Amino acid sequence: MLQVEGLSKTYNKSSRARVRAVNNVSFSVEKGQIVSLIGESGSGKSTIGNMVLQLTKPSSGRILFGNQDITRQRSRSSLKEYYRKVQGVFQDPFSTFNPIFRVDRVFAILHREFFPNEAAEAWQQRVEAALLSVGLTPAAVCGAYCHQLSGGQLQRILIARALLLEAELLVADEIISMLDASTRIDVLNLLGEMRERGLSMMFVTHDLSLGYYISDRVIILYKGVMVESGNTQTVFSDPQHPYSRSLLEAVPRLDVRWDELPPRPASRHEAAMFNPDCDKGSPRMEQIGEDHWIAVRDCLPGTEL
Amino acid sequence: MSVEVENLKFYYRTRKGSVKALDDVSFSIADGEILGIAGESGCGKSTLSNGLIHVCPPMELAGGSVRLDGKNLPLDKPDEMNTYRFRNLSIIPQYALNAMNPTVKIGRYVQDLMQSRGIDYSAIEKLFADRLRFVRLPEGIQKRYPIELSGGMKQRVVMVISTLLNPSLLLCDEITSALDVSTQKVVSALVAAFRDEKIVKSVSFVTHDVPVLYQIADRILIMYAGQVAEAGPTEEIIHAAKHPYTQALVAAMPEMASTYRQKKHASIPGKPPALLDPPEGCRFKERCPYRMPCCDERPQKRLVGNGHEVYCWKEDL
Lengths: 305, 317
Fold this sequence. Notes:
The complex is a heterodimer.
Chain A: E1 2-12, E2 18-29, E3 34-38, H1 45-52, E4 60-65, E5 68-69, H2 76-85, E6 86-89, H3 93-96, H4 103-114, H5 120-133, H6 138-142, H7 151-164, E7 169-173, H8 181-196, E8 200-205, H9 208-214, E9 217-222, E10 225-231, H10 232-237, H11 242-250, E11 284-289, E12 292-296
Parallel strand pairs in A: 3-8, 3-9, 6-7, 7-8
Antiparallel strand pairs in A: 1-2, 1-4, 4-5, 9-10, 10-12, 11-12
Helix pairs in contact in A: 5-7
Chain B: E1 3-14, E2 17-29, E3 34-38, H1 45-53, E4 59-68, E5 71-72, H2 78-81, E6 89-92, H3 106-116, H4 121-134, H5 151-162, E7 169-173, H6 181-196, E8 202-207, H7 210-216, E9 219-224, E10 227-233, H8 234-239, H9 244-251, E11 301-305, E12 308-311
Parallel strand pairs in B: 3-8, 3-9, 6-7, 7-8
Antiparallel strand pairs in B: 1-2, 1-4, 4-5, 9-10, 10-12, 11-12
Helix pairs in contact in B: 5-6
């Protein structure tokens, strides 16, 4: 459904210094699949999300949505058509909403912009159905201003908004990092339910335990480079890239303490692996198992797997 | 016991009345102990840290006492507290990353800070350098501006400054929340190292992130809506919690052991009560699956194990 091919984004810091925020990233998201982009600050995970949402223009590479390269189309009408199918939800729900509008205004704008021919009554019913399906009481939220609602409620309103558009892909950028533990799991479970309805998702997060809980596939990013990707279970149980390993070891768990973690067997592909800290150029993803890929150096002879 | 908190109340004065952010909380921290304090937004955990350091309007001390090394802290007299602050108790604030003055170099900042406390900087300069080394920062940090450091480095600098005078009690307020996982691990391990090296005597580590507490805390205190729900040894709180809220909170944490498809975690229905006018009795009763008529009365502290206290009416804990 969504295919990202060789995507790069370079920012010019000054006339000489360049930052490769995203470096040759390729992946795809299938229908009804949740793909997590996991990485720490500066890994490029949000930049990728923004490029898919057409908020940032890629420096090179293609983004195919339904076989159309969206990086080439820039007209207003095609963008609007695109946003019917691809929606974003961001980290801070309080800054997403206009504080002087009531929540129903959000839906009224949607009605006017995207479904002008739909009768007001039928639309109202659809709004209520969408709010109910994300676990909200329509009467309680519609007349409220955003400061009267909790972060979890606001995020759910945004997901309901995407449902009303019958969006096919949701780009969820750190949508639960500002929520409390009890609401966090609620929104996460909601994403799981949405997946069962066929909605695809790009779940951008720095929190590995959330990525592990919800996603089908994971992509681990470091300094703009995909270092490891594949089936969630496979990558988390048998990480190969040194960076993914150190990241997984640092996750605070509720069953094992940091200093009691059993040692992992040595990585099988250490020598050939691409290290964004010192290797120049672009890595190549090499398959090392059924749906398990790691970044390897492309051009060094004698380091084949 | 190095810290004894008794019936402590911090209220926020507003036009509509007092918000009872911390309402009758008692606990103690032993020498050499890291007490983890956990709870969700609005449970009073940050109010507790801030109030112990500096009670300033709209916050007011509404009752209770705090004893540090056997001495009563004059919490309601900010000027007298000045003699204790930094020397006897110190805080690493939630927004430590913005705690420093961006226009002066770090060495100068510490010099000014010492001067304001009437301490000769030259006497402490070497200690400062040693401590920076102890947290594994490169040489010459003193000559740098805060903007030249990464988030994790700034956090460590603030940790060093806060603990420079070997305070008895170190308050850590959500210090790992804004950090990446690998930095989070380094910073929380350093807090434990400060304790192990006897740089600080005891630590109150406030966070919403229960898994971090499992890693470093000796005991955990769970707060709900301004009151203590449960307190006890880390292992018991995480794996054998008694209070229905603790059980629900721990169960709501995704913890790398199961996925949505394998086992769906349950959330806690409802939301915490407004603290302007909190309900009578147990504050968790509206969301509690075991609610009984007696929950309208405030539950008394019950001891269910060695140092394990639960505030709940449920019979078979």
